[in-house]
Design a protein that fits this description.
alpha+beta, 2 helices
Length: about 190
């Protein structure tokens, strides 16, 4: 277990280091020529500066870790992996999400809605004898998040419909529903 935690920390640090130059280049390109950079006091009045990569806990289907990488302010890739109760096995999923609408924009937080397509891999245990098989599927996810302004944290609630194909003796298509909540810290 400790080896897995160290591996996850190494992956998170590598992704954060790789994303840092991209974020700096994007911010530098967005600043028009001749304008001065904001002072530290101007940044503090708007709230905490967040990084583009967040990692945290996911509770639901599955229970495990989640990560999100913002590509733009309104577009991101996100995913989760962990233990799946429904299949009594392992699940991993990833989504490309858009944030098309903001429900609330308060001084403390912003609450955007997000939607998007994704994929899922799950390992099932069939019956009492414990035979295992896998299924691969397409997800359609929708949710909303509380994007806190004073701290580099967000909390979210989401639901996803999944169309999957199971690779077992009785192979075939199935429909399922995933739901979860969690929180991520941004670097």
């Amino acid at each position: 277990m400790l080896t897995h935690v160290r591996t996850l920390r190494t992956v998170a640090a590598t992704v954060a280091l790789a994303a840092a130059p991209l974020t700096a280049a994007r911010d530098a390109a967005a600043q028009p020529a001749g304008e001065e950079e904001e002072s530290a006091s101007d940044r503090l009045e708007r709230g905490a500066e967040k990084g583009t990569f967040g990692i945290g806990l996911y509770i639901g289907e599955p229970i495990g870790v989640t990560a999100k990488l913002y590509l733009e302010d309104d577009r991101a890739v996100q995913g989760a992996m962990g233990f799946a109760f429904a299949g009594d096995g392992f699940q991993i999923h990833g989504d490309y999400v858009l944030h098309p609408y903001i429900l609330q924009d308060k001084e403390e937080f912003t609450m955007p809605v997000y939607v998007g397509p994704g994929v899922r891999f799950i390992q099932y245990r069939a019956g009492r004898d414990g035979d295992r098989y896998v299924a691969v599927g397409a997800r359609a996810v929708a949710g909303f998040l509380f994007d806190f302004k004073e701290i580099p944290l967000d909390a979210f609630l989401e639901v996803a419909g999944v169309i999957e194909y199971g690779f077992a003796d009785r192979a075939g298509f199935g429909l399922t529903l995933n739901a979860g909540a969690g929180a991520r810290y941004y670097f």
